[in-house]
Amino acid sequence: MSSYFLTTAIDYANGEPHLGHAFEKIGADCIARWHRLKGDDVWFLVGMDEHGQKVAQAAATEQLSPQAYTDLIAARFEAMWNRLGISRDQFIRTTASEHKAGVQELIERIFERNPDDFYERAYEGLYCVGCEAFKQDGEIVDGKCVLHPTRTLERVQERNWFFRLSRYQDFLSDLLQRQPQFLQPESRRNEILGLLRQGLEDISASRSRFSWGVPFPRPISTGEVQTTYVWFDALPNYWTATRFAGSRAPWPAQLHVIGKDITRFHCVIWPAMLHAAGLPLPERVWAHGFIYLGGERFSKSAGVKLDLQEAVDRFGADAFRYFLLREVPWDADGNFSWERFEERYVSDLADGLGNLASRSLAMLEKYRAGVVPIDETRTPLDETGEDVLARFATAMDALDLRGAAETTWELVGRANGYIVETAPWALAKAGREAELDAALGALARCLARLTAMVMPFMPTKAETLWLHLGAPDGVQRRAWEIATRPAVGGWRSSKPESLFPRPQLPPAP
Ligand SMILES: [Zn+2]
To answer: What are the residue ranges of helices labelled H in 353-400?
Structure first.
């Protein structure tokens, strides 16, 4: 059993969870469940980024203290993750005392191992409160931040701690060239290699202008204690998580799942920080794309809205998970549309998997009193099933979640065809019992394989399917083994209520 520690980006606590947040958590959850299915010892970390000026501002707007405000937001995110079946093992909040202590320890480790990596420098520039960053000329249009044209840029001068990121340029180039899997997909790796070729500038590590954060462990020369700046506050969460009481997270992480807009933080700044601190690097960073609605990206600042609760309400959490992962490639951008959602729901779930399960289980009940025949005849449907199972595993290991779902539904289509070809009702009528046993046995084995493959995508529906197939207790831990050798003969099955009810009945003929 190998350990598998995966993380998602921590979400910034200045608003409600939206579709972009949900997509990332659902994809990561699918990967976590796949590794559990294979028998790995999984630790799945999700959390909140709760410090910074924008959080303090949002709290002030709500007339709450920053801590009370982030408590409220964190509870909303957790409620949504519960609803979506995000099977996290740990929910980290950067306001936790363990995290703060961990951040300071990481910084001290760098001071001890590489004393020249932090230095003091006076800095003057135009500061955007929206970005919490000083802006360069190229990011300013008509005297305003291009991302926040309604806000006024402030001219700010202060002395800060700086981190000598420029020192790590060769280390990072080597890393990305020698370990191509460190950052995937490939297009994202090329972007970072291009960035590295342009040269790295040192980055500030502390700020004097706000206090809602972790105190930087060493004062500047004036004696002033500053606040740790964003990357040194947020990025270490993946490592500090391992130091919380009750956490079984190992270090390094096997996988960081992040959005494609934050690869620079995770593949430049974060590995440099870890290397400076003498800590091992994560094995793999995966940068997923964005979901668009009518061509526009979901985010708080863009103001593109789709009510997440409403989207989940439409066909339930499992169907929503399936739709996003089947529709949006895990390595690129995709679109959300209500029309596509309904089309996929009807074709893949109601008419596809739902129809297959209900017909197969109904025939087992009708012709065999709900007892799966003990028949080991290897049918063409088994051959397809074995092939699909193997290709599913390959796709999942490559993090091709959409490809894995697509492959699974090849078997759904094949099995519905198999019912038509073998026509079990005709076999029953003609009294051809052995052939009927073979067909019903093949369908039950097929459902077992499908249920295992569906588990990472639709965990609740998969549980219902196992139950109605009559699988033994504890099937969750043995599901992949069962799918690989589906000895389902003798299981006592039952017909479920409609798994995926059709949204509306077609008009009567
Ligand atoms: Zn800005």
So the answer is: 355-368, 380-397
Cα 271 to ligand 1 centre (Å): 26
Distance 302 CA to ligand 1 centre (A): 12
88 C-alpha vs ligand 1 centroid, how far in Å? 32
State the average pLDDT over residues 488-501.
94
User: How many angstroms separate the alpha carbon of residue 367 from the centre of ligand 1?
Assistant: 67
pLDDT tens readout for residues 102-136:
999 999 999 999 999 999 999 888 988 887 777 87
Most confident of 147-151, 158-162, 292-296: 158-162
Write phi, then psi, for 431 (nearest 5 degrees). Answer: 75, 25
Is 509's pLDDT higher than 80?
no
In the reported structure, the alpha carbon of residue 140 is separated from the centroid of ligand 1 by a whole-number distance in angstroms of 9
The rounded Å distance from CA 304 to ligand 1 centre is 18
Distance (angstroms) between ligand 1 centre and the Cα of 142 equals 13
Q: CATH number for the 3-306 domain, one of 1.20.1250.20, 3.40.50.620, 3.30.390.10, 3.30.420.40?
A: 3.40.50.620
Among the four given CATH numbers 1.10.730.10, 3.40.50.300, 1.20.1440.20, 3.40.30.10, the one describing domain 338-484: 1.10.730.10
- Distance from Cα 135 to the centre of ligand 1, integer Å: 8
Q: What is the pLDDT of residue 403?
A: 98
Q: Are 47 and 10 in contact (CB under 8 A)?
A: yes
Residue 87 neighbours by CB under 8 Å, 6+ apart: 29, 32, 33, 36, 44, 459
Kindly compute the dihedral angle of the four CA atoms of residues 328, 332, 336, 340, in this order, to the nearest 10 degrees: -40
Residue whose entry in the numeric block shows the structure tokens 């529709």: 327
**Region(s) of the chain under CATH 3.40.50.620:** 3-306
Contact 206, 230 (CB under 8 A): no
- Cα–Cα distance measured from residue 160 to residue 163, given in angstroms and rounded to the nearest whole number: 10
pTM: 0.94
CATH 1.10.730.10 segments of the chain = 338-484
CA 203, 208, 213, 218 dihedral sign is positive
* pLDDT, tens digit, 9 for 90 and up, residues 416-462: 999 999 999 999 999 999 999 999 999 999 999 999 999 999 999 99
Longest dimension (CA), the chain: 95
| pLDDT (0 to 100) of residue 461 | 97
For residue 214, the CA-to-ligand 1 centroid distance in Å is 22
Q: Where does residue 416 rank: exposed (0-12), middle (13-18), buried (19+ CB within 10 A)?
A: middle
Which residue in 395, 392, 407 sits closest to 479, CA to CA?
A: 392
CA of 300 to the centre of ligand 1 (A): 13
Residues in the chain, total: 509
Instruction: Give distance in angstroms: CA of 133 to centre of ligand 1.
Output: 7
CA 471 to mean position of chain CA atoms: 29
